[in-house]
């Protein structure tokens, strides 16, 4: 179990994770209208939230982990004092243009239907949910027994879970699209083509209907 500070330092020190974060932040910021508000769902230590606030977006943060939340309060203390970042105990405490969920936050959920129904009350019509999720088709994981053992589950149902303390779930995009309906539609999936098998993370953009 990492402390908030250990997780924060690891994420900033990892070139691969920094590159993923930069791509995710760029996509989110390109999609957000000027001055639009955003909820960072599963905000971790506030790295993304700080970037959104720095770009003029009022940012709400929801982070259920006490360790992460404590470090977020320290890392984003200036923004919190200025109220450009506001912590919320529940997503339902805000109404925003967009929700972002970076670095596999949604992989901790076994079923997303109830979550998308809740987020439909948070995201304004025409707004979006942008999620970075673990790619179940990533061939770099094929060296692990758990990946090979679940290939048929992925083909049959588009979903499998890895036995671990956190029980991480992996989902095919079609399963996520089905869970998001009728409140959201899957508008964009990144990467495509050969990148599909070569990237650990996939970005899914859901548009509020």
From TrEMBL:
Family matches, as Gene3D superfamilies: Vaccinia Virus protein VP39
Any Gene Ontology biological process: methylation
Keywords: Methyltransferase, Transferase
Sample GO molecular function, one term: methyltransferase activity
Keyword Magnesium: no
Disulfide bond as UniProt keyword: no
Name this polypeptide is given: SAM-dependent methyltransferase
High-level lineage: Bacteria, Pseudomonadati, Pseudomonadota, Gammaproteobacteria, Lysobacterales
